[in-house]
Amino acid sequence: MKKTGFRHAPPRAVAMIEALRGLGYSTATALADIIDNSIAAGAKNVELTFEWNDKESRIRIEDDGRGMSSAELDCAMRLGEKNPLDRRDKNDLGRFGLGLKTASFSQCRRLTVASVGPDELQCLRWDLDVLAASEGDGWHLLEGPHDSAAELVEQFGNRSHGTLVLWEVLDRVVTDSYGEQDFLDMIDRVERHLAMVFHRYLEGTRPRLRLRIGGKLVTPWDPFLSGHPAKPWHSPPASFQGMAGVEVECHVLPHKDRLTPKEHESAQGPDGWTAQQGFYVYRNERLLVAGSWLGLGQGRGWTKDEAHRLARIRLDIPNSADEAWKIDIRKSTARPPVEVRAWLARLADETRSRARKAFALRGQAPRNRNGEEVSQVWRSQKFSGGMRYRIDTDHPAVRAVLDDARALAPQVLAMLRVIEETVPVQRIWLDTAENKETPRTSFAGEPPAAVTEVLMVMYRNMVLLKGMSPAMARSRLLMSEPFQNYPKLVNSLPDQPPELEKKQ
Asked: Which of 26, 135, 304, 348 is the most buried (most CB within 10 A)?
C-alpha cells in the first residue's frame, strides 16, 4: 500500500461559481451585502442607481469610501481570500470574504468593480459568459471594464476616492416576461429592506450613512417606534453576563387604535405586523434577522400569531460571536448558543405576555379619561381545561335588563349563557388572520348617532327607573365599557330624558 499522499483538486471555475449563484439571495439582501463593504470602507454616502433597459438593464452602487489599492481590489475580487476564523476589526460587517462576489453573482453574470484609492483608478471584472466560453478551466479575472461600462468607469475615475460596483446581464432579475413595472416594484422592495437593515446607521440629524436610491434619500424604518408616547412598555437594556457584547431591549408596540393610519401602515414593516414580531438581531448595529422567535419556547417553539404581533425585541451581538451564533454567508440567520437560550426565553416570555395583554385590551387599559377603571362587559376565566369568556352581569347595561326582567330573568340569563357558550372564537381568529385586521368593536367606525341611541336607552333606565340623578347616570356611563371612549356624547345627554320633559 502506498503512503497517504494528496492530490491538487481545485474546483472547476464555472461549476463553482454557478453553484454559488444559488445561495438564496434576493436583490435586496444582495445589495445589503454590497453596502456592508461600503460601510467597512468608511463611506458616508452610498448611491444606488437602477437603469431599466429590458435585458440590458443594470444596477450600480457607488460610495465615497476610502477606495482600494490595486492589491486590495485584487484580494476583494478573489473568492475565499479571507479566512472567516481570522480576527477582524470590531466594526467589520463581513466575515467570509465572499459577500461581494456571491451577492453579485446571485443577480448578474457580469460584475465590474472600479475603485479610486492609493493607486488611482483600478478596475476588475468577472464575466461568467467569458468563463463559460474559455478553453481550459482557469479562473479568469478580467482587467478593465466591458465596452458597455467603459464611459461610466472613466467618469467615476474623476473622483478623489470611492468604489463603484456594477451589475450587468441581470439574468436572475430580468427574466422572461419581466417588465418595467416589475423592475419598479423590485426597487420599492429594495428600499423598504435597506431602510430596515441599516436604520440605525441612517437615523438622526447627523446620520453615519446617507443612502440614496435614484437620488432620493432612504428614510430609516425603526421597528420599535422609539419614543412614541403610546407605547405601553419597553424594558431597559439588559446584558448577558457570560457573553460580552450581547444586549437585549424589549418592546411592546402600540395597538392600532393608538396609532394614526399613517403610523400603523408604516410600523407594520416590509412583511406586515404578524410576520415582523419577534427578535431583531443586530451585529454592529446592522440588522441580520428581522423578526424571529429564534426557535425559543417550550416544545416545538413559539410561532408567529396575531396575539403577539406587538412584541419586538432588539438583540445586539458582536462580530466576534459569529461562529457561536451560526451566522450564515447571507447574514440572514442566527441561532442563539445554548448558554443564552434560557435567558432570552425568559425575556421574550415576559414581552409576549405584555404584548398579548396590550393586543387584547386594544392598546389601553380599560380606564376612562380620568384614569379610573371602567366596568367591562366581558371577563375571561382561566381553568384547567382552558379559557372561558363570561358576560359580567354587573355591567350597567346588563344589570338594567336583569333588574327589569323580573319573571323573565331566568330566560334572559339563559340567553346570556347561550351567547357565552357560542362565542365564535375560531371564526374571529380566522377572520383576523386572513384580513390582518382586528375585529371592530366599541362602536369603531359607527356614526355618533348610533352610539347616542344606545346611550339614551341606558340613560333613561338609570334616571327614570333607578332614580339616579342625571349627573350620577352620566358618571356611571363614563365608568362603563365602551362608553368611556365617548365622553363628549355622554356629557351632551340632556339633563332630563324626553319622557320627564313631557310630564312637566
From this structure: 348
